[in-house]
Amino acid sequence: MTDFQHIRLIEALLFASAEPVDERGLAERLPEGTDVGDVLATLQDTYAERGITLVSRGGKWAFRTAPDLAASLSVETNVGRKLSRAAVETLSIIAYHQPVTRAEIEEIRGVALSRGTLDVLFEAGWIRPRGRRRSPGKPMLWGITDTFLDHFGLVSLDDLPGIEELKAAGLLDSRPGLSSYANRAGEEADMIDVEQIEALDEEELERKAVDALRSIPLDDEAADD
Description:
Layout: H1 4-16, E1 21-22, H2 23-27, H3 36-46, E2 52-57, E3 60-65, H4 70-73, H5 85-97, H6 102-109, H7 115-123, E4 127-133, E5 140-144, H8 146-151, H9 163-168, E6 191-192, H10 204-214, H11 220-224
Antiparallel strand pairs: 1-3, 2-3, 4-5, 4-6
Helix pairs in contact: 1-3, 5-7
């Protein structure tokens, strides 16, 4: 049986945290050998029928209001700034085809991508640099963030609408470029970490992206490349 004190501790940590917390961070606060998975499962069951529920977002855990209460809690406000159509299309392309370069986004959309489009998405915390592709010029690769998953209520990218769902909604663009990079994600051989190459004189967004990428710990596989 899971120790009730451990449940209380994890509950308090999640409530106090401003951001979702991964299991490793939670496990560091528990006695060695404690199964944090069991603690989270028990806590999730406890809140299953409550006004707030315990959810997983991108491998991290957080308390969120129950989905069925969304209509009662919604408040209509005037939004001063909305994403442009170009930004929405770019965000969608990155979500479905990550990791993807600026040139690949432009090929899929069929039009040139302004510098400000990626800048807006990057500043919003919805996309992040994923390294550089092993090709001439070593273009920056972009992917979505856990903030994106949390904002749209997705546990992982597997929860994104599929082709059939998009067709049924009339949202699937039939331009040929859309299928060109369907298998980009996971092609580790084409990726190179930013820290492994010399700094390049590029635009301000590129410099911001490099700084952000350097702050992300590399996993063992990437470090061995």
